[in-house]
Amino acid sequence: MSIPLSGFELREVVLPLVRPFRTSFGEERDKRAILVRADAGDVSGWGECAASPEPRYSEEWNDGAWMALTAFLLPSVLAGGPVERPQDVSSRTAWIRGHRMAKAAVEAAVLDAWLRVGGRSLASHVGAARERIPCGVSVGIAPDVDRMLEEIGGYLERGYRRVKLKIEPGRDVDVVRAIRRALPSTPLSVDANAAYRLEDSPVFEALDELDLVMIEQPLDHEDLAEHAVLQSRLGTPICLDESIRSAADARVAIETRACRIINIVPGRVGGALEAIRIHDVAREAGVPVWIGGMLETGVGRAVNVALAAMPGVTMPGDTSASERYFHLDLTEPFVIDSEGYMAVPAEPGIGVEPLPDRLDACTVRVERVTL
């Protein structure tokens, strides 16, 4: 199946967050995102770039992604003519090193359009094994434990099935211990976002005693060898996030025993197609995976939800309901039911699209790219 591409439109949008979200990288009060629209005849497809305003989580940031998209990525995709298959995006942009989050946004937009033309959903394309997915929630660093417990209690009442606590040096063992004491049976995990060093092993040995589901990305994203050393000292599984940028990275991490769980963030790895490859590598090795998020709007959230329905995704991810982050999302809101599950979109493509009035109200920059 071939689709013609007449051009792309970029939009930068800003959505206020329901509450500030703080990690070891810093604090966000707004979600600033780049949306990519691919125009293919009578059909359009949408993608979202997961980059942040500053290059803290990865080397990418919004202004850099905008430049990479307009100067290199989108012209390269358009220059190849009609798209025969979604993989054409990666083959046409392979000469551009890095910029995975920007590439993921283009791939998602083209894939969405391609699937809409064919009348197929993204869920069916990725081999979804279920019609709804279990949801977890990520809780940012707060000034005090009581405030965190109040926030967590609200999420548990809504049905969330796993709680992830962000930690940083000085805000780790005592906080997690207090929350575990208050919530002895709640599935808890922690996420350090690479804020520690191997010399901080006593911190993780203390956390190891708190019956956690996992300890996510404790050390630097380039230190697989040190993650392997730390994992050998712990009973709690280490989950790698920032360290996994490709299926090749996943294979090495598994073979070196640097982790026992993998978090797949579609934007971080370059898009849905590479996310599928990582899923397949991990599934073959018997390593659990889950789908992580970057506070995406409904456009990016739709991709995450479809991928979370793949058969090898056996753990609740961070794909929370729209209301967790936004008073009003860009799309019809994603919701969770009383059991903590979210429906997987079954409509063609990613299954959602921005609401025009809402999109216009949130847009702060627009640019069109054509041949």
Short overview:
The protein is α/β, with parallel strands linked by helices. It has 13 helices and 13 strands.
Number of strands: 13
H/E topology pattern: EEEHHHHEEHEHEHEHEHEHHEHEHE
Low-confidence stretches: none
Tell me the structural class.
alpha/beta
Task: Describe this protein's structure.
The chain is α/β, with parallel strands linked by helices. Helices cover 36% and strands 20% of the residues. It is built from 13 helices and 13 strands. The strands form three sheets. A seven-stranded parallel beta sheet has the order 5-6-7-8-9-10-11.
Please supply descriptive tags for the structure shown above.
20% strand, alpha/beta, 371 residues, 13 helices, seven-stranded parallel β-sheet
What are the SSEs and their pairings?
Elements: E1 7-23, E2 26-40, E3 43-49, H1 62-79, H2 88-92, H3 100-118, H4 122-125, E4 132-134, E5 137-139, H5 145-158, E6 163-166, H6 173-182, E7 188-191, H7 201-207, E8 215-216, H8 224-233, E9 238-240, H9 247-255, E10 261-264, H10 266-269, H11 272-285, E11 289-291, H12 298-308, E12 341-343, H13 356-362, E13 363-369
Parallel strand pairs: 5-6, 6-7, 7-8, 8-9, 9-10, 10-11
Antiparallel strand pairs: 1-2, 1-13, 2-3, 4-12
Helix pairs in contact: 1-3, 9-11
